[in-house]
Write a sequence for this structure.
């Protein structure tokens, strides 16, 4: 009797297994992968990517024409109401305006996207007021945040890619009311912001504005004034890390030493430290103050402006636009009134050679933090040299 019953059951189970196989395989990425060794051999510090799923880096448009000279009458003496960029030549100003039109303005509007053609000096169009603030922001990024953008620099195109509104931005999420199913506390909801993980889906609201710590570990195991990170705050940090990973098209080993996450032995982690604080300054110091300037359709559901995160610039690649130098024909976007490192010399490189030099970065940080970052930069350089030697 049992034998007669077990045969149909066995056939049913076998059929279910065959039918389930294609479903299980949908979670796999078929085909070859590319692997890059980012650490010593045998340390499992590799980046593995599927080349068919990688985002194309994009190609910035060519300058309207080459910038041949920065000499000549100043723009402030030629045009009216120049609150920014008046310190450059009129010719350089004209070139920059043409390029900004290609970087940001819809083709059918051109200059009229920001300007009243009957009165170019007027501030009546809100886009012009916003553009002025964004130019100030761009100059700040290119001078005070070289620890992240290096000598490559950024222009309006880095984020806008030919559109008036960047393709990737974030706003505060509206509060979810308590219902019969309770309050999920902003978790367990599939969201691309955290790579569809069951983590807090809005980590940007606490970690990409303000000055909240982004840390999950400590030097001790017991609760102390130095070890008070809650589980909820830890999950928000993991959510931000998932966002950074997907935004740059990399995995954890790109920034972290997976043998010891407490170590700052990866130069990329130091660069990310600067990047997070750069984004905070952009959101807090340049975008949020424009809340009263933007019309209603340029605000989120809770009334806040569209803010930036890692994806705004990176868009799936670890170097925006593949690392193409952005300032060759737009040197005015690096404020001439602010001293910067020499061409090809980043703040991080200066920190490697002289650890105390990291404090010269125009970023508010405690002395202890500056020392730690400087030491980390030196350790990153040492390990990089050891890794190169080990692979030869």
């Amino acid at each position: 009797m049992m034998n007669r019953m077990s045969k149909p059951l066995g056939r049913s189970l076998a059929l279910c297994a065959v039918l389930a196989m294609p479903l299980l395989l949908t979670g796999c990425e078929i085909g070859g992968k590319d692997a890059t060794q980012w650490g010593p051999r045998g340390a499992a510090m590799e980046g593995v990517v599927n080349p068919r799923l990688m985002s194309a880096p994009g190609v910035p448009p060519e300058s309207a024409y080459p910038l041949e000279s920065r000499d000549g009458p100043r723009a402030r003496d030629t045009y009216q109401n120049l609150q920014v960029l008046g310190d450059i030549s009129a010719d350089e100003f004209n070139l920059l305006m043409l390029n900004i039109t290609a970087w940001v303005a819809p083709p059918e509007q051109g200059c009229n996207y920001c300007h009243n053609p009957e009165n170019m000096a007027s501030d009546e169009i809100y886009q012009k007021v916003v553009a002025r603030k964004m130019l100030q922001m761009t100059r700040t990024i290119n001078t005070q945040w070289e620890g992240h953008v290096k000598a490559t620099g950024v222009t309006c195109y880095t984020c806008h890619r030919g559109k008036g509104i960047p393709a990737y931005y974030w706003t505060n999420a509206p509060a979810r009311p308590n219902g019969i199913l309770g309050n999920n506390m902003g978790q367990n909801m599939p969201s691309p912001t955290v790579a569809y993980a069951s983590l807090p889906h809005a980590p940007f609201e606490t970690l990409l504005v303000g000055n909240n710590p982004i840390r999950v570990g400590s030097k001790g195991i017991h609760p102390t004034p130095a070890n008070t990170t809650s589980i909820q705050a830890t999950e928000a940090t993991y959510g931000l890390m998932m966002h950074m990973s997907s935004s740059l098209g990399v995995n954890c080993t790109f920034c972290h030493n997976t043998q010891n996450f407490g170590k700052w032995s990866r130069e990329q982690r130091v660069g990310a430290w600067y990047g997070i604080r750069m984004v905070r300054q952009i959101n807090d110091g340049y975008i949020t103050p424009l809340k009263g300037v933007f019309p209603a359709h340029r605000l989120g559901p809770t009334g806040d402006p569209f803010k930036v995160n890692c994806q705004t610039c990176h868009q799936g690649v670890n170097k925006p636009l593949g690392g193409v130098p952005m300032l060759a024909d737009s040197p005015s976007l690096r404020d001439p009134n602010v001293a910067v490192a020499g061409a090809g010399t980043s703040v991080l490189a200066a920190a490697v050679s002289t650890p105390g030099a990291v404090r010269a970065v125009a970023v508010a940080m405690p002395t202890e933090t500056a020392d730690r970052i400087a030491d980390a930069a030196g350790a990153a350089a040492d390990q990089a040299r050891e890794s190169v030697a080990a692979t030869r």
